[in-house]
C-alpha cells in the first residue's frame, strides 16, 4: 500500500513536471499549428543555464530558477521573431525539418560547450532526502516540484480563464482569422505566448534536471514525451495536457516499477491507440475546422 | 497542340527513358572503377539511396509524411541479421527478399494506423511505431543482442558464387544491382495508372475519391510497398556491414532520411539517390572538419534549406543544367 502511494506521489511529481515542460508546446501546436520538435531544446537551455549559475557562479538554487525561466523566455522570443515567425504558414513537413535541424544544432552546441556527460545541479541541503507522512516516503525535492508546478498550473489556468490576455489567447486558438478580425493582434499574442512557453520549458528543464537527468541529448530523449502530452491531451484546452501529463507521469513511474521490462513500450502503445481512437486527443474537442 | 494531347500523352512522354537517366546509371557503374578505394562509402550511398527511394514513394508520390521510416529499415536489418546468424536462409538474395517481406508485413499492418488522420497524427504514429520497435528490440535483447547488436553475422556468397570481399567491391556491386532493379520497378509503378492515381490522391484526396479512386486502398498499397523497399535497404545494410544494432531504429536515422530526400527533392525518384550521394559526401566533409560534431552542420543544412525554401533551392540548383539543356535543344536561340 505504501509503495503504491509512493509511486503515486512520484508519478504526480513527474507528471506535473512534464506538464510545465510541455505546456508551451501545447500552445504552439494549438495556436499556430506549428510542429515544434525543438521545444525540448528550450528546456535543455533552461536546465544548463541553471546548472551553470548554481554550480559555477554559486547563485542560490531558488534565485537561479527564475533566471532560467527568464533566459529561456528571452531565447524563445528571439528565436520566434527571427526564425519561427516565417514558418507558420509552411507545411508540417517544413516545420518538422526545420525544428529537427534546430534540435541537432542545439544538441551539438551543448555537447561542444558543456561536454556530453550528464550533469547535476547542486541542490541546497534542505531539498535533499525524504520524510515520512503516515509511513509514506515523501521526497523533499519532489514535494517542492509538486508545489511549484501546482502553483504554476493554477497560475496558467487563472491567466487563461480570467485575464484579458487569456481571453485573447483563447480566441486566437479557436479561430485566428476571426480573432484578428476583432482587432486582436494575433502575432503579438503568439510571440508572448511562445516566449512564456519557452520560459516554462526552461524552468521545467531546470527543475527536472534532478529527476529526468540533463545531458545534451535531452531534447531528443524527451521529445516524444512532450508530443505525447500534447497529442493525447489535445491542444485546445490546458486541462487536457494537464491530465495527460499526470496520466503519463503516473503510468511511466508505475510501469518502470512494476513491469520494468516493458516500461516505455506500454506508453508508446497507449499513445498510438489513443491517437487512432481519438485523433484530436483524449480530452480534445472534435475539430471544427 | 490541341486538347487531345492530354494527360495521357504528357505522362507517356514523362515515362520515357531519358538521356539524363542513362548518364546517371553509367556514372554509377563507372564509380565501380573510378573510386575503387572508396567502396564502403559508395555502398552506404547505394543502400541509403534505396532507403530514400522508399520514402520518396510515400512522401513524394502519395504525400504521406513519416518520421519513423527507420522502423522498416530496422526490421529488414534485424531480419537479415537473424537469418544469417541462425543460418535459416543462407543465400543473401533470398534473405533480402524475406527481410523485405517481413518489413512489408509490418508496413501493411501499420498502414491502417498511418493513413488515418491529419499530417500531425501521421508524424506521431510513425514516430511512435519506430520508437516502439526500438523498445521491443531492446527488451528482447536475448534475440536481438540489445545495445551491443547481433553478434557473429556471416554472410554467405551471393547466389553461392560471389563471396563478399574485404574491400567491399562485391558488396557495392551487389547493392547497386539491387538498387537498379528496385528502381526500375518503382519507375514502372509510379508511371503506371496506379502511380498517377497516387499523385491525384496527393494533390487532392477528396477529388480523387470523387472520381472513383479507392483512396485508402491505394495508400495502403503504396505504404506497404514502401515498407518493402525500406526493409530491403535495411537488409542490404546488415549484409554489407555485418551489423545490426538498436541504432537501426533510431530517430536520427528517420530524420537523416528526410534530409536526404529533401536535399535531392521528392517526387521524381532520382531525388533520393542524388540526395544520398550529396548527404554522404556532406557528412564526410563535416566529420573531417569536426569529427564529433558533424551533426551540427547537418542541422544547419536542414534549417537553411527550410529557410531558403525547398522550391527556391531546387530552382537555384537546377538553373545551370536547365540553361545548358535549353541551349542544346535550341542551339540558335538564346535562353531567355
Structure write-up:
- The complex is a heterodimer of chains A (289) and B (336).
- By secondary structure, chain A is mostly helical.
- Chain A is built from eleven helices and two strands.
- The longest helix of chain A is centred in the N-terminal third of the chain and has 31 residues, at 2-32.
- In chain B, 45% of the residues are buried.
- Chain B has helices at 7-15, 19-34, 39-62, 70-85, 92-114, 119-139, 141-144, 169-190, 193-203, 205-210, 215-241, 251-264, 270-289, 294-308, 310-329.
- Chain B has a domain at 36-250.
- With 336 residues, chain B is an all-alpha fold.
- In chain B, helix 4 (70-85) packs across helix 11 and helix 5 packs antiparallel against helix 11 (215-241).
- The model of chain B is unreliable at 332-336 (pLDDT under 50).
- Chain B is 74% helix and 0% strand.
- Chain A binds chain B through residues 29, 33, 35, 83, 86-87, 90-98, 100-109, 111-112, 220, 223-224, 227, 231, 261-262, 264-265, 268-269, 271-272, 275-276, 279, and chain B through 59, 65, 67, 113, 116-121, 123-125, 127-129, 131-132, 135-136, 139, 251-252, 255, 258-259, 262, 292-293, 295-296, 298-303, 305-307, 310.
